[in-house]
């Protein structure tokens, strides 16, 4: 059994509110009877991409399990690399921050789908070629691909402008590759779907949630609901069995 704790969108900004919401998750993880195999955080770690925000995050993510991080649209590559150097292993400088990380029996391909200064996601030809090469490498174990912006519409008039746009080329690269599952964040909602015939799991937002157009509006009248419970996903992989995902919202 291989267990992944999948966190997303803490949006740390130096405030006690953001810090306390993340601590509800990390405190819960520290109480596990055995540590998870890996902790994955799929973007928007900082709210403004400041060095001080990444320093705060690094302190909050001191856990007994290995921690993997990737950038979201609120993150800024250079301070992200510098402030999270102990968590990031990506050659080059600045953007993009692509990584391949082996943790125990599993391999994680961490994609940077962000566009500097924009909210939507893209995978340019160079990134797709890099991904294709990585996925062709032999690997005997579960293979996960993680990124920030999901490659589908939420059917939300605002959020749909900010999703991953290069969907068909991305699907073409994934076709025929031994990918166990895809992991994403960005939409601040717990979602189970498929993409290119592969299970896709989206983690809920830690900082807030985003009500769908048919749901009650946020009590603040804004895009996000900051009063929603912070949550995360637990993905359980057992060879020969379907991936199981459990969503938790610790109080």
How is this fold's topology laid out?
Elements: E1 2-7, H1 16-30, E2 38-42, H2 51-60, E3 67-70, H3 77-83, E4 99-103, E5 106-110, H4 125-136, E6 143-146, H5 167-174, E7 181-184, E8 191-195, E9 198-202, E10 232-237, E11 244-248
Helix pairs in contact: 2-3, 4-5
Task: Provide structural commentary.
The chain is α/β, with parallel strands linked by helices and 251 residues long. It has helices at residues 16-30, 51-60, 77-83, 125-136, 167-174; strands at 2-7, 38-42, 67-70, 99-103, 106-110, 143-146, 181-184, 191-195, 198-202, 232-237, 244-248. Helix content is 21%, strand content 22%. It has a six-stranded mixed β-sheet with strand order 4-5-6-7-9-8, with helices on one face. 42% of the residues are buried.
Give a brief rundown of this model:
21% of the residues lie in helices and 22% in strands. Belongs to the cyclic nucleotide phosphodiesterase class-III family.
């Amino acid at each position: 059994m291989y267990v992944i704790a999948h966190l997303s969108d803490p949006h740390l900004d130096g405030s006690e509110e953001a810090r306390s919401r993340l601590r509800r998750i990390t405190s819960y993880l520290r109480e596990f009877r055995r540590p998870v195999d890996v902790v994955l955080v799929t973007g928007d770690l900082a709210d403004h991409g400041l060095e001080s925000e990444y320093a705060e995050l690094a302190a909050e993510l001191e856990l007994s399990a290995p921690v993997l991080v990737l950038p979201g649209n609120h993150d800024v590559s250079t301070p992200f690399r510098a402030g999270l150097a102990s968590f990031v292993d990506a050659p080059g400088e600045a953007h993009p921050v692509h990584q391949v990380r082996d943790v125990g029996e599993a391999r994680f391909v961490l994609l940077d789908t962000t566009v500097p200064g924009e909210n939507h996601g893209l995978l340019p030809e160079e990134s797709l070629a890099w991904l294709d090469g990585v996925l062709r490498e032999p690997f005997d174990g579960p293979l996960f691909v993680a990124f920030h912006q999901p490659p589908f519409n939420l059917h939300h008039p605002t959020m749909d402008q900010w999703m991953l746009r290069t969907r068909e080329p991305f699907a073409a690269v994934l076709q025929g590759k031994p990918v166990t599952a895809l992991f994403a964040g960005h939409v601040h909602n717990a979602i189970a779907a498929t993409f290119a015939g592969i299970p896709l799991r989206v983690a809920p937002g830690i900082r807030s949630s985003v009500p769908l157009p048919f749901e009650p509006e946020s009590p603040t009248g804004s895009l996000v609901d900051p009063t929603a419970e912070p949550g995360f996903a637990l993905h359980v992989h057992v060879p020969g069995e379907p991936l199981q995902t459990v969503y938790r919202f610790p109080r």
